[in-house]
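Appendix C reproduces, verbatim, an entry submitted by the partner laboratory led by Prof. M.T., so that reviewers can inspect both the input and the predicted structure.
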Amino acid sequence: MPRHDTRRRTDPADSGNPEPPRQRIVSSAHLVSPHSEQLSEFEFGMIVSNNAFSRWVVHCMSAAGLRELTPLDVLVLHHVNHRGRGKKLSEVSFVMNIEDAHLINYSLKKLLALGVVTSSRNGKEVTYTTSDEGREYVRRYREIRENCLVAALKADEALNRQIGDLAVLLRVMSGVYDQAARAAASL
């Protein structure tokens, strides 16, 4: 298999010295494409970021006093609490971009059993809200997040702008991956 040149290309008309070659950090060298070497680097960044983020949300919620939750459970609790109004299972699944509603349903049942989420039925519709206890865990989570994560980030205006730009890029890329998944499913 041919090796891909990962050095930055320079314009011969440039009088400055070219930058030294940069080794790309990828998880699967066999997936590196000559059309976008950066995509493999991005995917590796997503893998390690997702794992670090998952570890963070579990440890933060555990520090808030609610243990034995998976990363998805924590995120479902936060989404149910979002804006203080009831959510249907389909809404939680849709906003979190999770096709397998049974995963969300399992988390909701677990959160109900722990007493941090309540449910109410209106005909066939079931809506979920956080209980007083659930809201207290979420409040403590926020406090710990401010003290441990936000304070450690020490973001200034420039860094916050970069974080915002990255958030936009991640939403764009999620759409690209969703479209590619639909295309692959039709093969």
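DSSP finds six helices and three strands in the chain. Additional entries are available on request from the coordinating office.
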